[in-house]
Design goal:
The chain is α/β, with parallel strands linked by helices. Among the domains are: about 180 residues, no CATH class; about 130 residues, GMP Synthetase, Chain A, domain 3. It has 17 helices and 18 strands. The strands form 3 sheets. Strands 6-3-7-8-9-10-11-15-14-13-12 form an 11-stranded mixed β-sheet. A 4-stranded mixed β-sheet has the order 2-1-5-4. A hairpin with an 8-residue loop joins strand 1 and strand 2. The longest helix has 17 residues. The N terminus is likely disordered.
Length: about 500
Amino acid sequence: MKIIGSIIKGAIELKGALSTEPNHVEAQQKTLYNILKKASNTRFGKRYSFELILQSDEIQEDFAKEVPYFDYHQLYDQWWHKVIDGEENVTWPGTPDYFALSSGTTGKKSKRIPVTDDMLNAIQRAGIKQVEALSNFDLPASFFEKEIMMLGSSTDLKENDDHLEGEISGISASNIPFWFEGYYKPGKEIAKIDDWDLRIQRIAEKAKDWDIGALSGIPSWMELMLQKVIDYHNVDNIHDIWPNLQVYTSGGVAFSPYEKSFNKLLAHPITVIDTYLASEGFIAYQERPDTDAMKLITDNGIYFEFVPFKPEYINSDGSLKQSAPCITLADVETDQDYVLIISTVSGAWRYVIGDTIEFTDIKRAEIRITGRTKFFLNVVGSQLSVHKMNTALQEVEEKFDIEIPEFTLAATKIDNEFYHHWYLGTDSDVSDQLLAKTLDENLKSANKNYKVARGKALKGLIVTKIPVHIFSEWNGTQKKKGGQVKMERVMSEEKFAEWEHFVSQTI
């Protein structure tokens, strides 16, 4: 097996040495041309004159002028409900065999996002790109002999009329290449178990039979699985069960809030690699070890546009105003949050995916996810993004040497005064008042808009500590455990009332 590992590692390193950095601006221009051409005879393509756009000398500009922005509900109401009903050639040629169920964050009503054969092929190509990038991470040859634990949603996809439905992680896992099946764990039989608790129980029971070298999944659910395995076998850490574990591929949310609590489950640090796989496609992956930023995949069936993330461009419900200006990859800047817009080989057109990003390296097209458009807290001008919240909480963790892997907050009114009420998931014995004071100071020093708001209409900050497990229990009541379900960081007033009632009944 050592020989096999050396061969695989050598092949990856050779491929990496022969690969050259693409011109990302040109790759995006070519991607747009190709997807417009393929979709030109669809009903959407005819409605928005794709053939005429293709004849233009300024395809990107004319595409932006001709096609409006769409969020999920707009695209569903106008177009995708026809795709779901089985109509052909609506927003992409033919009909998709799969629909990804997604609520983005917690929410009981799932969205149905088309997943075409072209998108499945693009996701597989992106996965291969990420594997090739492992040559940059100085991993031993033995790593390439080990098994990979992919903790996603159930692969037992539900049949609905003439298509199958499930979360994107389940769809992807059910379509893994045959040559990968020997490496894939927990294996097809366990992966099909729909009940999260039962699936994790089976993983714990079988854990000692596997030689896991890499993990892949959303941090919050990965931590729960690792803790279950540790508890089941009554060991100190996960390396007592999987001594060759060396890599964790995170995805979907920022890993930094979970870093301290995650590392407590290990005997020693492992390599953490970020990915950006959404229900709408495989968007980016971390290519090199000396950054936590991810490289946009610019030549793989997704065309990107960017709207500066400013309050005047965002509606109160987090949706994007049609008048908001957008730019292409050629004109982006660092130190600026952007609303990410995508057009894809699954027939999403100028689609507001809901995430905000910033560029860390324009030449490499490297980005970092900074939050969600709906998680932008701008009551009384405070202008807080999730990235700024995460950073402020990390400073609190460091100051008191504590762990705060989960949080949520909302703007609330008490005696006609505005407050930000934070719920922090932590087992710390630091007082709520001291945490609130420290967090408030961190936010004021890092964010001038927040500091101005605190001097005017924002009266103060309230902290309530609760056990971490309450967040996963809340997620379970909102949709289901595991998979792509993520915690809402900023809640509306109505949702926050539900949350507070749930917390009071659970503690």
